[in-house]
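Much of the work behind modern protein science is quiet bookkeeping, done one molecule at a time. Below is the pair of lines this work produces for a single protein:

***
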Amino acid sequence: MPPALLLLLAAALALGGCGLRPDRRASAQECMERAMYFESFRSSRDGLVAVGSVVMNRVASPAFPDTVCGVVSQPNQFASGVMRNEMRDAPLVREAAAAVLRGERHPLVGGAEFFHAASYRAGYDNMHYTVTTGGNAFYERRRPEQVTRPVPPPPVEGLTPA
C-alpha cells in the first residue's frame, strides 16, 4: 500500500467516532468546546472559563503549541479522548468557548497553565495555586521559593458574567 494511502487511513482511524470528518480540521471553537466539555462540563460557567483561560495561556506560551487545537490535542494533557469522544449539545459550553476566544478570561486564573481535580493533592513544591473553581484547582509552576500559595484555595464561583 502506498505511504500516502497509509497516512490517510491512519488519520481516518484516529478521528473515527469523534464527529470530526478525516478530511477537515477542527476549528478553534470546537477544540475549545471539547476542552471545556471534557474537563469542566458538569461544573459552572466559572469552571468552563477557567479551563479556557488555561488553554489560552498555553497558546501564548512558547512551551506549548501556538493554536487552540494544538494545545487541546496534546497527548496526556487533557481528558482522555478529548478530540474523539462524542459530546452532547451543551449551549453553556458553546457560549463560554466563544467568550474565551473573544478575549474573556477568568479573573483569578492569572498565568496558570495547569489544573487538576480539586480533590487531588500533589506532592510537588513548585505549584502556586491561583484559584479553585468548577471542581478544578488551577496553578502556575514556579521555583519553590516563589510559591506563596502551595495548597488550593477554597472554591469560588460567580466571578464571570452569566
